[in-house]
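#lab-general

N.A. 3:47 PM
ok so I finally got the sequence cleaned up, no stray characters, all 198 residues accounted for. can someone with queue access submit it? mine expired

B.Y. 3:52 PM
send it over

N.A. 3:53 PM
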Amino acid sequence: MIWKNKKIWIILFSCAASASALAVFVILPLRERVYSKKDEMVKKQLMAEHLRKESTRAGEYKKDLAFLKENKEKIDEVFITEGEEIRLIQELENLAEAQGLSISINSLDKKNKKKEDSQEGYESVFLKINIKGTFQNYMDYLYKLENINRLVKLDSVELDKYSLEERKEGDTIDFDTGGELVRSEIMLSFLMKKDENK
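B.Y. 4:20 PM
back already:
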């Protein structure tokens, strides 16, 4: 009888040892290989998805490039070219005068230009604009300035009240329109195409 109890314990111990050995030497390595294969499949799926997206983007880039080629002249119009600075200033003055504003425009020194503001093939043109007039006309001017066919960066705006007592000779403000009088200093920058022949 003692031998039977020992036999049962030996059989149970042998089964447990066999099951442990099976788990350690067969099931765990097999499980690791399965997870490894699964990870590889997930990586391949992600790579395939990435390639699909990139190929879709390539098609979009081709469409964008075709659009740019078709509209090259229109796109070039948003940049001023060397020698057009006077025309740009006249355009800004005409815009202000049409709104009944007094305007003076000054170009900034080249030493004030930041190197990072210029890009290859382009140079930033900085203008300081002083404006006087009614607040409503001023806001209309800013709206029209925002919608001109030029690439404009509004660097800074200073705005304060302006009174009749401060009026100087030469001011062309239409005082009969009523409304709050303001004066403003605006710093603008435009991108100018550099002359490729230079």
